Each structure stands twice: as structure tokens, then as C-alpha cells.
Amino acid sequence: MDNGSLLVGLLILVIFVLGAGLMISRKLPALLALPLMGLAIALGAWAIQAVGWMPEAPAMDLRRDILRGVLALGSFRLAEAMIAALFGGMLSFIMQKSGVAENMIKHGAELIGDNPLMVAFLSMLLVAAIFTTIGGLGAIIMVAIVVMPMLATVGVPPPVAGGILLIGLSMGGVMNAQAWALYINVLGLPQKEVRTFAMVMFLLMGVTGLVFIVVELMRARALQSMRQALTLLAVVGGAATLAIGAIVVSHRGATAPLPVFEPVFAGQWRAVQGSGSLEFDEGRAVVRYGLDERGEPVELLDADDIGAWLALPGFEALRDRELAEFKDFTFSARANFAGALRLRFTRADGTGGNFERTLTPGAVLNFTLTPAELGVASLADLRGAALAAVAVTPRAGAETFEIAFSQARYAFVPVVPVWLKGLRIGFGLVLIGLLGLILWDLLARVPTWRKQIVSVKWYAYLIPVLPLGLIIIYDLDVNAGLALGFVYAVLATLRPGSKSMAVQSMIQGSASVLPAVLLMVGIGILVCAVIGPPGFGAGWPVTSSMRPLLEAALPKNPLSYV
After folding, report:
1. Which residues have a Cβ under 8 Å from the Cβ of 384 and sit 6 or more positions away?
2. pLDDT, tens digit (0-9, with 9 covering 90-100), for 483-503
3. What are the structural domain ranges in the chain?
4. Distance CA 147, CA 134 (A)
5. What is the architecture of the domain spanning 263-412?
6. Helix, strand or coil for residue 237?
7. Cα 514 vs. chain centroid, distance in angstroms?
8. Tens of pLDDT along 75-96?
9. How far is CA 395 from CA 194, 335, 359, 546, in A?
């Protein structure tokens, strides 16, 4: 690690510590601190490079890479999460404006009874259900105004009631689809993984919350029956364990890494043509060539016998399954040039297959092939393979053109279990029934539309369930689920003035999440400053400078991780 890279790494740590200190001490709000931190990191790295202290790193351009790449493009890097926040704000506002959220708490309290244990536990679940959809400080205050006195009347101490409210709030937050979009955008995780993690966390937090309630009620001498508490713990704990097992089993093996580009397989690939170099760096295969060696096409990597790989450790899942069971094979590549990436296979019968995808400088290319495209009876029938760059146009100012291959993976054909098919059919029938009921009720109210007494119908209490059901059961996109949830919320709360309420929800609901959207702008700028702008390519100096410091701090065993 050269002195320039070390200096950039230390600069990043100083900026992060300074920014965190200013935010914690409330000297600078996060809305300002995050974009300023991102800009300071990028400008600091550029300045260090400009004085010649990082000669090995790819050149950073102030106008193109910093002002446009980090500041401009980074500001809408989290666009999908921003849209999800807007839809979530609209849905939250209409639930509050129509009285659904408040009535949900009040009617829930009436049905629970006066048993402190059951009131506390069901209140936690009720709060969690509400906050799967709504959010914001106003919503928290509204729910607390109803829940806290209700818990106090059955003998739950105020600090315990506050803890129950916070646990319920956190449970609802982890299942809030609006937050899922942020994780998917920032961390680059598949929606399936975020959804699975959220469901498991929801169940674990529910069991932990119940243990908290039982222990605190015992300490406050408000627990009426120890047998009832133990029975409830056993039932809830057992149900949660079975549910977690079902979630894990149903999601296991859907996707898996393909260890093609890891160092252990370095001998299987080689760089070809001239002085091209191949380096393996944390699971990435980085290929570099001098500009004077580019041709049409430029051979990057080749391998003799892919079929022979199936005998190597790590390929058991591919070796033991039929080709028809695989949905696709994918590897990701990022390059600092424009053009195309060509992949060529030789089959056992001597025929060849050529596949080509367009490359954009700095953008991640997911090169995906299906078994049908491979055109072989089994993976063992694949022989030689070669990767080539076609019509290469290097990024302006680059001394070399390079491409990094990583994240090779495969996916199995999704097999929908019988129980999930039944659940989807059942949920669909329920939706059709609900829409029919809403239409029937609407037609019945038309003659007395202006004189009707406005009330919250029972099907309006399903507003938080609908978007989650669409996303979890039908694997619908988060934004699509939230948008359909808003449409259902408008239909389920139809009354005189609903059109105005819907428009008001769209405007004021969006305005209520504007701070979160602005925060995402800052997060996007900071993320781009750390991992590189979309148009830069591999070797962003900030990332390469941080890697040695992070490697030194990473836990090496389970104990240090904990």
C-alpha cells in the first residue's frame, strides 16, 4: 500500500469520525453531513492524487468523476428507494387521515380484555401490524397516545409500556416494504434475501418481545398466571421456530455462488494476447491490457475444459443436478471502456456458441446465460471457453483498459411448492372477494352518499396486510406492492371527499417523507464517493485505499465477530 493510498484511507476515517461527531453532537444535521462527507472524501482523494501521491491509481477527473459522477449521479442513486418512500408516505397518510390507524388501536383494545399479559402482547402485535405500513413521528405519537394509557389501565408500568411500544415499532419497521427498497438499493441485495431476513427477524423479535413482557410483568407483580405465561411462551416460541424453519427451507438453494473467479480456481483461467495480466483479488478476476494492445476483438480470458471443473471442490451443486433444473448462470463484470463482451463456448461435438452483451463504462454488466442458450445436454459437454472485449473504446484519460469479473452465481428454476400455490390462489380469491364487497357496499351507499355517517369499514383494517401479502406471497416488486396498496386504501375508505383525501394524501404524504428522501440523496452521494461513480470503472482510488484498512479490522473468527 503506497503512501498516497494510506493517506486517502486515513482521510476517509477522519472525515467519517468528524461527520459522526458533528451529527451526534447535533452540530450538523444528517441531511447536510452525509452529502458533505461524500463530497469531502471524493475531493480529498482527487487532491491527493493531483499532487502525485497515488501514481498507480486510475486518474480521477474533477468535472466528470467528482462533480458529475459523485455529486450529480450519486444524488439519485437510490431513486427506487425514494419512490418507495413516497408511496409509503401516501399510504401512511391515508391510513391516518381516514381514521383507520386510530380505530384499529381502539377496537383492538376493546377486544383484548383486561389481562395484563394478553393486553401487552397483543398491543405489541397490533403496533407492529400498523407500522408495517405507516411511519413518521406523527404516527408514533398518535399510536402512543392510544396504546400507553391502555397499557397503564391494566397495570403495566410506564417504562415497560414504552418498551412494548418500541419493540412493536421495530417489528413493524423490519417488515415495512418501504424500508426494504433502501436495503435493496444500497446493499445491492436481491429482494428475496431482504424479504427472508425481514420475516425471520420479525419472528425472533416477536419472541424476544414476549419474553421481555413476561419478565417485566413478573418484576412489577402484574402477572396474573405463571402457567398462562409459560403456555403462551411455549406456543409462540414453537410456532415461531416452525415458521422460521419453513422460511429457511423454502428459500434454501434458490441461488448459490459459482466459484469460477475465486483464487482457488486461478489455474482454470488465464489471460491471453500480449502483455495482458490476470490478477485475483477477493473473488474478482481483474484483467488489464495496455492501450496499445487493443484489437478487434481483444482476447481477455480463456479456459480449456469447463466440463472438467465439475470434478473440483465447490461445484457439487452443479454436478449433482440436471441441467433442466437450472434457471440461469450469471457473472458480473465492470469495465472502464465502452463496447461489448463476447463469450464463446466450444461444445463436446465441436460446435461453438457465441454470446455478446453491451458494456457501458463503470456500469455493472450481469452476463446471464440460460441452459437453452448453452445448447448442451449437460454441463460436462462444455469444453473450451473464451472471453473477449469487442469494439473497445477506453475511457478518456485511462492508461490501460481493464475489466473485473466477479459474483459468478447460478439460480435454480423456481419450484413453487403446493402449499404456496394454494396460498396464492387463496389470497387471490380473498382479494377478488374484497373488491366485490367494496363495490357492493359502494352501490348500497350511493342513494344516501351525501348524508351517510362516515365510518371505518372492517375491510379497511386490511390495508397494512395487502401490500405485504402481494410482495411476500406473489413476489411482487416493492414499489408495485405499495402502489397497489394505496389504490386499495383509497377504495376501502371511499366516502364523500375521498378524491380530495386521496390527492391530499399524495401531496402531504409525500411531503411527510421528504426528509427521508433528502437523506437518501446524501446517502447516494456518500455511497458513490466510497465505491465509485457509475462511469468510472474498476479501481476507484477511494475503494482501493479503504480495502487494506477494512481487511485489518474484519473479524477473523466467530468470537471476534460477536
Report:
1. 302, 303, 304, 305, 306, 345, 346
2. 999 999 999 999 888 899 999
3. 3-79+516-561, 99-252, 263-412, 422-493
4. 16
5. Sandwich (2.60)
6. helix
7. 20
8. 988 888 889 889 988 988 898 8
9. 35, 9, 12, 24
